[in-house]
From TrEMBL:
Entry function: Ligates lysine onto the cytidine present at position 34 of the AUA codon-specific tRNA(Ile) that contains the anticodon CAU, in an ATP-dependent manner. Cytidine is converted to lysidine, thus changing the amino acid specificity of the tRNA from methionine to isoleucine.
Key words, A-Z: ATP-binding, Cytoplasm, Ligase, Nucleotide-binding, tRNA processing
Lineage: Bacteria, Bacillati, Actinomycetota, Actinomycetes, Mycobacteriales
Record protein name field: tRNA(Ile)-lysidine synthase
Keyword ATP-binding: yes
Domain U-box stretches: 1-25
Designated gene of the protein: tilS
Family: Belongs to the tRNA(Ile)-lysidine synthase family.
Reaction catalysed by this enzyme: cytidine(34) in tRNA(Ile2) + L-lysine + ATP = lysidine(34) in tRNA(Ile2) + AMP + diphosphate + H(+)
Length: 320
């Protein structure tokens, strides 16, 4: 039984709402040993019968294996039916943050079986994610933030502040692991957490993180409606895998670019940017005989290119 402190009650309510909305026979927890995932583990065990912990050892710091084993031991003590440590090798693509994330999610995907994986992301993490997306400048979609459930990833704590998970650990007598990387100023997210958000809170009078999270939620809701409308248009303007320009040109820009995005993704395109979408949109509305637009998703020997030919947008490989 958990003590009925304000922090723990808030966490239990958040996890209960998530479980009610997404009923599963069992769930897995991505446990790092930090305050967020440790508090989430304790509360999840109190709210559902079968909780498995997955601890990813990134092997980036000396003694990381011992830290991972300690987290797994705590998970079992809290009531997890199993606690598995998965060691990974972190690559270099995209920098250490991105490479570690890629390795971590791959390990969690492999180890989860059929269960969803609950992540300890809080409202503060959501605010940081929105600011990172805003800096990319890739349109509204880039500041949608994280979803409460993006299968198989579940985030029950997106309405809970980070301070609440820390207080829950205090209430439970648990000392969370403090990852040195979380105070390393070389990482952009750390500087957002320790410098940018506190400054925004000071300058704008507080409540910045909740406001950013609300904005992300509103944009996701609006985006879902626009995406559904774009899918309906795509069905109408796609013929034999191509897009008919005359059928698309009269649509509003926000819908037109969404149609193009959905079509490109369906054709194997990856890592699409706002620059890609606008350049391809110009093939529709600002046609002056320009060449094709290369997008991600090709191979080592061939680029994936969108071109306009005979009144149609086509997607194919261009051998280099």
């Amino acid at each position: 039984m958990l003590p009925e402190t304000p922090a723990l009650l808030l966490l239990r309510q958040a996890v209960r709402r998530w479980l009610d909305a997404h009923p599963y026979d069992d769930v897995a927890i991505a446990l790092s040993g930090g305050a967020d995932s440790l508090a989430l583990t304790a509360v999840a065990v109190a709210e559902t019968d079968r909780v498995r912990a997955i601890v990813v050892d990134h092997r980036l710091q000396q003694g990381s294996g011992a830290v991972a084993q300690t987290a797994a031991t705590r998970a079992r003590a809290l009531g997890c039916v199993t606690a598995e440590v998965v060691a990974v090798t972190v690559g270099t693509v995209g920098g250490i943050e991105a490479a570690a994330r890629t390795a971590r999610y791959h390990a969690l995907e492999t180890a989860r079986g059929s269960a969803p994986v609950l992540l300890g992301h809080t409202l503060d993490d959501q605010a940081e994610t929105v600011l990172l997306g805003l800096a990319r400048g890739s349109g509204g979609r880039s500041i949608w933030g994280m979803r409460a459930f993006d299968p198989p990833w579940g985030r029950p704590l997106l309405d809970v502040r980070r301070a609440t998970t820390r207080q829950a650990c205090v209430d439970l007598g648990l000392e969370p692991y403090e990852d040195p990387h979380n105070s390393e100023p070389d990482f952009t997210r750390v500087r957002l957490r320790t410098e940018v958000l506190p400054l925004l809170e000071d300058v704008l009078g507080g409540a910045v993180a909740p406001a950013l999270a609300r904005t992300a939620e509103q944009l996701r809701e609006d985006g879902a409606v626009l995406d559904a409308a774009a899918e309906a248009i795509l069905t109408r303007v796609r013929v034999d895998g191509d897009l008919i320009v005359d059928a698309l040109v009269g649509e509003p820009a926000a819908l037109r670019r969404r149609v193009i995005r959905a079509w490109l993704l369906g054709g194997g395109a990856k890592s699409l940017t706002d620059k890609h979408l606008r350049a391809i949109d110009d093939l529709v509305v600002a046609w002056r005989g320009q060449g094709g637009v290369a997008v991600g998703g090709g191979s080592a020997g061939a680029r994936l290119v969108c071109t306009r030919e005979h009144g149609r947008l086509t997607l194919g490989f261009d051998n280099r």
